[in-house]
Amino acid sequence: MSVFEYYAPSHALFGFGCIEGICGEIRKRNLNKAMIVADHRMRATDIVRKVTDILEKEGTGYYIYSEFKPNPTTVNINQGAEEFSANECDFLISVGGGSAHDCAKAISVVAACGGVIEDYRGVDKSSHTYPLIAVTTTAGTGSECTMDYVVVDEEKNEKYGNCDRNVLPVLAVDDCGLMMNMPANLTAGTGMDALTHAVEAYVSVDGALITSELAATAVRLVFTHLERAVRQPDEESREGMAVAQFIAGLAFGNAGCGLIHSMSHQLSAVYDLPHGLCNALLMPTASRLNMKDERAIERYAKLCRAVFPVECDKMGAREQAEYLIGRIEALSEAVGTNPRLSGLGVKEEDLSMLADKTLLDASLRHNIYKPDKAQIEAAFRSLM
């Protein structure tokens, strides 16, 4: 076995009501004033009020930053960093899903190191950051436990991912009680995002046994809990999805994603579409494209055997791989995450450009199969 580096948050809290535990981290680190990163919708909810009530009881100051899009832009991030410094904050609390966590990670880099976020494109570009407490309210991105964050450059029509070990949250909070009232469409999209993370981590060329085992467990949990969490949510399904998305985050945060994310990033950047929804509709098509590599067939087959051992017992490897992808398609249809791209506003004349940008996306380096432009463009077109 070769050496494999594994990164995870140093501290995580799970369970109903665990948000109260942020006090201990604040006291331990002697922190004084938080920038709370929460979008306008989240800012108006009881969830942010819970956070501010906790801070007020502790005598900890706070400033709320909400000026960011669902796909945070360079402008949003650089403005946030300026406001962090202007309000004399010394740590961040992100409240929400991947958008809030990614925005807070990026703000922390720029506020600590100076310049603009465009200066930090790539891997481990910061020298230090401010502490981040990530309070998760959706069950999908796993961003609270990764060193990855995504940025949109609107001038270049580009969405790209940075990876920096300094942005790992000092505390990840997965309070299932905060997820109980998620609307069905958000539950579905974020849940399929978690499934994408797990599937791509399992077949990544940069994974290891530890990431594969985490990914397989996450896939099992999603198939067990997602449909119920969408249709008739209860505490068990919410907790199951919260755990699924967290361990899927641990898996892809260390193994990387692949073609699905490379294609999805372009749809989000150009059309500002929800990331999880894009992943969901791309997953079956991109996975079948990967099967042009025999290694991918075996990995999908192995994942199928881990998740559906009884159903696929008598099948060969290719049939097992197809069975897994078929089950993914069926789940996506059941939770309503399988629209056509044309129905989401994607234009036929943009497909060549989307394919070009996909080939430049950093996530593609982890992918087991290296498609060419024509194959990627054809994959987009098949979903129109």
Number of E strands: 8
Output the strand order for the largest sheet. 1-8-5-4-2-3
Shape: globular
For the record, the CATH class of the largest domain is Mainly Alpha
Number of folding domains? 2
Helix content: 40-55%
* Poorly predicted parts: none
Radius of gyration of CA atoms, rounded to a whole number: 20 Å
Largest sheet: 6 strands, parallel
Task: Report mean pLDDT, rounded to a whole number.
Answer: 95
Structural class of the secondary structure composition? alpha/beta
Secondary structure tally, helices: 14
* SSE succession: EHEHHEHEHEEEEHHHHHHHHH
Distance between the termini: 43 Å
Examine the coordinates and then state which fold CATH places here, giving the name of the CATH topology of the largest domain: Dehydroquinate synthase-like, alpha domain
**Shape-level CATH architecture of the largest domain:** Up-down Bundle
**CATH homology-level superfamily of the largest domain:** Dehydroquinate synthase-like - alpha domain
The share of residues in extended strands comes to: 5-15%
Structure overview:
This protein is α/β, with parallel strands linked by helices and 384 residues long. The chain folds into two domains: 12-179, Rossmann fold (3-Layer(aba) Sandwich), CATH 3.40.50; 184-382, Dehydroquinate synthase-like, alpha domain. Helix content is 52%, strand content 10%. It has 14 helices and eight strands. The chain has helices at residues 22-29, 40-43, 46-58, 74-86, 98-113, 184-203, 209-231, 235-255, 259-271, 275-290, 294-307, 317-335, 351-360, 373-382; strands spanning 12-14, 33-37, 61-65, 91-96, 132-136, 148-153, 158-163, 171-174. It has a six-stranded parallel β-sheet, sandwiched between helices. Strands 6-7 form a two-stranded antiparallel sheet. A hairpin with a 4-residue loop joins strand 6 (148-153) and strand 7 (158-163). Helix 4 (74-86) packs across helix 5 (98-113). The model has no long low-confidence stretch (mean pLDDT 95).
